[in-house]
From TrEMBL:
<protein>
    <recommendedName>
        <fullName>Protein-export membrane protein SecG</fullName>
    </recommendedName>
</protein>
<comment type="similarity">
    <text>Belongs to the SecG family.</text>
</comment>
<dbReference type="GO" id="GO:0015450">
    <property type="term" value="F:protein-transporting ATPase activity"/>
</dbReference>
<keyword id="KW-0472">Membrane</keyword>
<feature type="transmembrane region" description="Helical">
    <location>
        <begin position="56"/>
        <end position="75"/>
    </location>
</feature>
<keyword id="KW-0653">Protein transport</keyword>
<keyword id="KW-0812">Transmembrane</keyword>
<keyword id="KW-0813">Transport</keyword>
<dbReference type="InterPro" id="IPR004692">
    <property type="entry name" value="SecG"/>
</dbReference>
<dbReference type="GO" id="GO:0009306">
    <property type="term" value="P:protein secretion"/>
</dbReference>
<dbReference type="Pfam" id="PF03840">
    <property type="entry name" value="SecG"/>
</dbReference>
<dbReference type="GO" id="GO:0005886">
    <property type="term" value="C:plasma membrane"/>
</dbReference>
<comment type="function">
    <text>Involved in protein export. Participates in an early event of protein translocation.</text>
</comment>
<keyword id="KW-1133">Transmembrane helix</keyword>
<keyword id="KW-1003">Cell membrane</keyword>
<feature type="transmembrane region" description="Helical">
    <location>
        <begin position="5"/>
        <end position="22"/>
    </location>
</feature>
<keyword id="KW-0811">Translocation</keyword>
Length: 77
């Protein structure tokens, strides 16, 4: 059982990293943050479409990964 959970965590961790990397950038480039391009930094925009799906999928996978880690810790005691 522990090997199955550990394998699932490794696979889910890889998928989680890929989903984080696939999310669109909130900032166009690093220079715009220093040159005053961050004036709309505090304006909230609702994510839509692909961005929304990736945001929710990443959050759900992160919670599942955390719960699997806790379960693995309990089983190893």
């Amino acid at each position: 059982m522990e090997h199955f959970i550990l394998t699932t965590m490794i696979i889910l961790g890889i998928i989680l990293v890929i989903s984080i990397m696939m999310q669109p950038s909130k900032q166009q480039d690093a220079l715009s943050a220093l040159s005053g391009g961050g004036s709309d930094l505090f304006q909230t925009q609702k994510s839509r479409g692909f961005e929304s799906v990736m945001k929710h999928a990443t959050a759900i996978m992160g919670v599942i990964w955390l719960l699997l880690g806790l379960l693995l810790m309990i089983l190893q005691k």
